Amino acid sequence: VCFDEPTATQVAPLRQKYEAKHKRPLSPGVINGYDSVQIMAAGLEQVVDGNKPVDRKALNGVLTKISFNGVGARYDFAPDWHNGPRIENIPICTYRDGKRILFK
Questions:
Q1: How far is CA 90 from the centre of its chain?
Q2: 3-state percent breakdown (helix, strand, coil) of the chain, nearest 5
């Protein structure tokens, strides 16, 4: 994740809450975990239907084709792709002396 990306509007509030609670810097690993839980929740919302029990097959069917805008990247899963965000959906940032520079 690019922590200073102006279009990444979810980063600042998550960073503020996380760092206030845990007294350590927000990291990409934390964001990946957060996105994973949010993807699971979105999948469960699609599967739950009143009185029907949630089953693994139904949840897997939803998660296999879910699209989700996470904090760090966009996730577009498909039957042949379920390994996280596709490379073209991962923002890449480079910093030198604390300043963001053009990635080449």
A1: 10
A2: 40, 15, 45
The pLDDT value given to residue 96? 82
The Cα–Cα gap between 32 and 62 comes to 20
Instruction: Report the alpha-carbon distance of residue 59 to residue 62 in Å, rounded.
Output: 5
User: Left, alpha or beta for 79 (phi > 0: left; psi -120 to 50: alpha)?
Assistant: alpha
- Read off the tokens for 73: 């990247």
**Of the candidates 91, 35, 87, 39, which has an alpha carbon nearest to the alpha carbon of residue 65?**
39
* pTM higher than 0.70: yes
Question: Whole-angstrom Cα distance, residue 71 to residue 69?
Answer: 7
Size of the chain, expressed as the number of residues it contains: 104
At 29 the three-state DSSP class reads helix
